[in-house]
Amino acid sequence: MSETWLILGATSSMARAFARRAAASGAGVLLAGRDRDDLAVLADDCRLRGARMAEAIAFDAREPKGFAGLIDRMAAEDGLLSAAVFVGSMPPQADIDADPALIQGVVTDSFTGPAQVLQMLAPLMEARRGGTVVGVGSVAGDRGRIGNYVYGASKAGFATYLSGLRNRLTRAGGHVVTVKPGFVDTSMTWGLPGMFLVASPEKVAEDIWRAVGKKRNVIYTPFFWRYIMLIIRHIPEFIFKKMKI
Amino acid sequence: MSWKTTTYSGWGRALTATGEIARPERRRTLDALLSDGLIPACGMRRSYGDAALNDGGRIIDMSRLDRMIAFDPATGILEVEAGARIGEIAAAFAPRGWLPAVMPGTGFATVGGCIAQDVHGKNHHQAGSFGQHVLSIRLRTAGGERTISPKDDKALFRATVGGLGQTGVILSARLQLLACKGDVMVVTERRMKGWEEFLSHLDGSTATYTVGWIDATATGTGLGRGVLEEGETGAGLTPRRVKTRAIPVNAPHFALAAPVVRAFNSLYYSRVPARGRTVVKPIGDFFFPLDKIHDWNRLYGKRGFHQFQCVVPIAEAPALRSMLEAIAASGLASPLAVLKRMGPGRAGILSFPMEGYTLAVDFPNRDAARALISRLEAMTVAAGGRLYFAKDSLARGADVRAMYPDLDDWRAEVTKADPEGRLQTDMVRRLKLRSEA
């Protein structure tokens, strides 16, 4: 059966790699993001790589007025409807300390904006008895750290949302994959100090694609982050609160 | 963050540079980076030496601007951004019956890099060089963005192809792909017992793709022995995908010591039965045999390695034999050595190919190897041959002038396109390519 992927935040390099992977499988891709010019180039690329349909569409997590347009466009496609969420924003913690109002934007980009779109899409997915939601969170959501706890808290909220959505869609034949990437070689991490074991966006996309096929629930990518985070989650709070990692 | 300060190298890792690198993911970002003037661009840095290095300056990594823009299935014309990798184009289009007309020895090379070095492949004797299949190039020069083609802007086009990125930043290109039968290769492998036999088989080969692996450690009657591979594209069979592996750390210096290399080469030679054999391989295995092993350059340890590659005219085959004798006698060679016959095809003023034989040999980065390479370079000049800029890391400006007599014509065009000399790289400075003789 034909499948159409709505890709939120499609200009990011991880999303680009995932869109290409979906395109190579012959699926349709709806590339949603703010930079329409860039997404139009990606749409051509996806079509040449085998996508049945590829289109750029406007999406801004902070502009909920535009969400209905995305859902209508998805509804117009036949077959299974799926969505992959790659949006999120991570301003330096120091900026947030200086201007606490920034929290609103981080939470909207990383959690409530995409959650609202998924909430609107869910009834359509249920009606068609299938489809997959891929939600990209972060290992930062596993435990709040001094360096980026607002971003981490948003991603933790998103992860809990995804868990609930999984519970809901599973009964209608759908599925939700929660993805927790470690350090990925993107423009967001380019030149940041302290990066190690950095994975390419293509490697992450391939891991996600495989997890979709196998209906995995929660994946860490690359896989070893599961063990790194297992250790970090188990550090007793009375020690953790004094650490800086 | 736009700029990252780092120390980086070419594929050979013997030469390094320290400076700022930006890696834009969108055209908008690239335009902003270039708004204050041109900056040298690089691709996947698969050139061995310093062609993609700019010590103390800035460089733009184009590898994330790698999208396919348009394709016409009727004509096989593909338009792609400069950062697109040859191997990805091959993988996407071979199942539809098209391949890049010329593919270098690694699929990680970008379209921009292939143009800037006017690379050749295993079909050079028939298909010519990469640039001969480039219909037009979108180029960002000091005067702004323009599209150049061999018809309308002959001089600038010929200075850009094989031009080491000195005329501007290559943004995208229209490529004429070559029709193929499918996405597998049918390859015939035969043992070549020695130099004379090898050359005569290279001369007589009628295959579309021909390449020779040569045992650069064999001496005496075995001098020049190796394996000749002749390939044609085929269809109908789907060979299994081979898992890629990676070299995780730098190897110790004895990993490629002379006895190890000799033993490896003997095994590699005997692997092909004495009567020869025909095998079916995935396209990538034939064209990009080493791409399956990521970071194989680490096998040479942290000091890195040099590749010597020259081409000499047909009549100078004895000179090439003398070079091979010197290499074999030195015991310094690594298993990676290639012998090939080239046709006359070349598309740029500084393009490497000429009708003749080309020999490429890797050496670990040691004093003795550098001295040997220096001798080999002198022998190349004496034979009227050329060195390949994609591989070179040791030559001097004076040698290069003799090999590329049209250098002044190239420099004239380059000066027009980049009058302030902002695009100069470590290689251009080392070989004094943009200075008056």
Quick structural gist:
The complex is a heterodimer of chains A (245) and B (437). In chain A, helix 1 (13-24) runs parallel beside helix 2 (36-48), helix 1 (13-24) crosses helix 7 (201-213) and helix 5 (102-127) packs parallel to helix 6 (149-170).
Write the topology of this structure:
The complex is a heterodimer of chains A (245) and B (437).
Chain A: E1 3-8, H1 13-24, E2 28-33, H2 36-48, E3 54-58, H3 67-75, E4 80-85, H4 93-98, H5 102-127, E5 132-136, H6 149-170, E6 175-181, H7 201-213, E7 218-221, H8 225-234, H9 237-240
Parallel strand pairs in A: 1-2, 1-4, 2-3, 4-5, 5-6, 6-7
Helix pairs in contact in A: 1-2, 1-7, 3-5, 5-6
Chain B: E1 4-9, E2 16-22, H1 27-33, E3 41-42, E4 58-61, E5 68-72, E6 77-81, H2 86-93, E7 98-100, H3 111-116, H4 124-127, E8 134-141, E9 144-148, H5 154-160, E10 169-179, E11 184-192, H6 195-204, E12 209-214, E13 226-234, E14 245-246, H7 258-270, E15 277-282, H8 283-287, E16 293-294, E17 305-313, H9 317-330, E18 337-342, E19 356-364, H10 367-382, E20 386-387, H11 397-403, H12 407-417, H13 426-430
Parallel strand pairs in B: 2-4, 3-4, 14-16
Antiparallel strand pairs in B: 1-2, 5-6, 6-10, 7-10, 8-9, 8-10, 11-13, 11-15, 12-13, 12-18, 17-19, 17-20, 18-19
Helix pairs in contact in B: 5-12, 9-10
